[in-house]
Please model this.
Amino acid sequence: MAKDNKQDNGLFSEDQLLKLKETKKELLKDQQKVEEEKEAQRQFERKQREKNMSFAELLERHGDSGDKY
Model:
């Protein structure tokens, strides 16, 4: 009877494999969301630091090339 519920793949039944695949997709999606939030936080902090810089510091950092203005 237990043999009917299992596939040739060995340890897991078809339903268990589907649940595992869904869980894996959810975890990957959550991980990607966390990475995006971290990147957004880093960009926000960088902008805040640049906001607090003096004009001389910004000029030194980015140079005086006119293409950025």
Q: What stands out?
A: The CA atoms of residues 51 and 58 lie 9 Å apart. The chain has a mean pLDDT of 82.
